[in-house]
C-alpha cells in the first residue's frame, strides 16, 4: 500500500474525542477486568532480582487475593536474565512470560548479539519476545535494515510471539509511527508496541490510535491480524479504559482480547484493583489494602 | 479467542465485492456490536431543569401574554413528549415587539456609549457561561442534538460570540477606518432550528454591538433556549426593548419581515423562504442578509491523510444529524482511492452511536421534527429509486421519537436529486472524480455555495483548489470548524452577507 499520511490535528482531535467516552457502572467493571486480562505486568529495572520477579508472578496469577473473580494478567514482562525465575514461579498458570530482548531499550548493538539474546530468552522459557527496533537506522532512512532485523529476530525466536517496540517517543511524528508500524507488520511482527517505558512521551492516545488504524488497515489488506500493545505511562484505570475505547471503536469488540491487545504497565494494576473495590463497595480503600508486589 | 467476524452489511453483495488498489484487499467488517464490552447508559441529568408549562413573549423587557392567547407545544423529538407550551405571536404582537425595539433604539440604545453596550454583551456572555450546563441540556431536549455537541459546541460558541462582539462594540471606527459607522435601527432576525441558541447569538451579538435593537424570532420547533436567553437578557438588565424575542411559526416570521419600523432583516434558513424574503425586502427597501441552504462538496484526494479524512467526512455529514447548512453532503473522492475510502467510511459509520441525545456517549441524536424526518426519508428513497447503492448503520433505534440511520449512497451522479437538493439530514452522496480540475468543476456545479472541504496532505494543492471553489467557507483538512472571529456566509443561492468576524459587523452598520 502506498504510504498513507497521518494528519496530526485530525488524529489528536479524534483521540481526544474518544478519550471523553463516559464509562460508568457495569461498563466500568467489565472494562477494568478486561484491562487486567490484557495486561503485561512489567518490571524492567536494573535492580530486578529472582525474588522480586517471583513476587510479581504471584500478583500476576492472583491480582486480588480477596476477589477470586478478578482474572489473571496476560503475561509478565521482564529482562531475559529473569525468565528462568519467572518460569519457575508461573508453572501451572495461564500467565505467559514476555521477555524484552535485542539490547533493550536502545537496540544499538550488533545484530548477532541481539539474536543471541532473543534465542537465550526463548530457551529459558519466554513465550513472547518484546524486541526494540533500531531507531537510529529508522530515522536515517535505513528502513530495509530495520525490516531485516525484525525478520531475523522473528525467525530466531519462533515459536515465541514477537512484539516489536517502535519507541514512538523517539520517532516523534505520527507519519513515522504509521510507517514504522507498517514496516514491522510486514516484517512479521505479531504485535506492534508503542514504547519501552524508558522514554517520554510513551503510550499516548493519538499514537495508540495511529497504530490501531495501521493494524486494522494491514489486516484488511493482508488478512493477518496483528496486535497492538501500549506501554509506558499507563498508570490509571481511566487511561486503561480510554485505550480500550480506542480498540473497540477502531478495530471492534473482537479485538478486546489479549490475543490482539495488551497494556504494558506496573502500577496500573493496583489502581484498577482500587477502582474495582470502589465499584463493589462504593468507597475508596487505603492503598495499604493493595499489595505492592 | 474470537477472530473478527465478518458481518454482512445491508447491501452485502455490493460491498463485499469491493476490492481496492491492487485488487488483493478484502473488505473486513467487524461485528458492530458483538458485545464483549458495551458502554452502560451515561445520561446527563436533567431533573433539576425547571421548565414552565407556558412561555410568553419577551417584549419591552417583560414577558407578555400574546394578544390572541394562542400557544403551541414544543416537544422533545427523541421521545415526542411535550416540554412546554409557547406563545404564538400574532400580527399585533409582532407590531408591539417592533414598536418596543424602535422605542428602545430611540430612547436608550443609540444614546448608550459604545463601552456600555460592550458591558451588557459581556454580561450576557458570562451568564451563558455560568448557565452553560442547563442550557446544553435544554438544547438537547428541545432539538434532539447529542449532549456532547450542545455541551462542547453550541453553548460555548454562543458565549464566545457574545464575548467576541462585546470587544468590537467600542472599536467600530477602528474596524471601518475613515467612516463614521452608524447603526441601522431595528433588526428583525429569523433563525432556524438546527443551532437554536448559537444562531440567536450569531444574530443578536453583532446587532447589539453595532447599536441596533433586535426583534428575534426563533424557530417553531426549538424556541426554548432562546426564551431562556430572554431571561438571561432580563437579568443582565438590558434596557427594556433592546432585545425582543417572539415565538411562532412561519407566518410570525413573515409578518416580522414586512412589519413597518423594521430597518433590517437577517434570515438564516431555507433557500425557498430566503427568496421570498428577498422579494419583500427589495419591495420595502430593507437591508438584508441571508444565510441559506448548502450542498457542500468534501473533496478527498488520493494523497490525503485518509483516516483523518474519513473522520472529516463523518463529522461533515453526521454532525448534528446532518442538520447543518454547511454540511459536507456531497463527497467527491478521487477514483483511485474510492474503494478504500468507502471501506473505511462504512466501517467508521458503524461505530456511530445513535440514540438518546442526553446520553454522553451518543454521537448522533434525533431528527428535529417529524416533517424533517419525512423529507429526509423521501429524498433517501429517491436515491434508491435512482439506482444508487445505499449503506446505513446497523444499530438499533429507539421506538419513539424521530430517527434516521446515518446513511450514504455510492454510485451517485450529479444529476441525481440526492446530489442536487439539500437533504438537511444524515445522508451523504458519494461521487468520484479523476483530476483536480474535474473535482473543482463538480464541486462548483451546484446552485449553492456555502462551504467546501479539501483533503490532501499537499499544502500547495490545498490552497490552489481552495481558491477555485465558489464557496463562502473552505476548510482544509478539517470540516465544520467555527470561531466567532471567522466570517461565515455564502455564495450564489446560499445567500449573502457574512456573520462572524469583523465582516459580521458590516451588515449591521451604515459605514460611509
Q: Would you write up a description of this structure?
A:
- The complex is a heterodimer of chains A (293) and B (512).
- Chain A contains twelve helices and eight strands.
- Chain A has helices at residues 8-18, 25-37, 50-61, 83-89, 111-123, 135-139, 143-157, 168-171, 174-186, 205-222, 237-250, 268-281; strands at 39-42, 75-78, 96-101, 128-132, 161-165, 191-193, 227-231, 261-265.
- Chain A has an eight-stranded parallel beta barrel, surrounded by eight helices.
- Chain A starts with 7 loop residues before the first helix and ends in a 12-residue tail after the last helix.
- The model of chain A has no long low-confidence stretch (mean pLDDT 97).
- Chain B has 512 residues and is an alpha/beta fold.
- Chain B is 38% helix and 16% strand.
- In chain B, helix 10 (271-284) links the parallel strand 10 (264-268) and strand 11 (287-291).
- At the A-B interface, helix 1, helix 2, helix 10 and helix 11 of A face helix 11 of B.
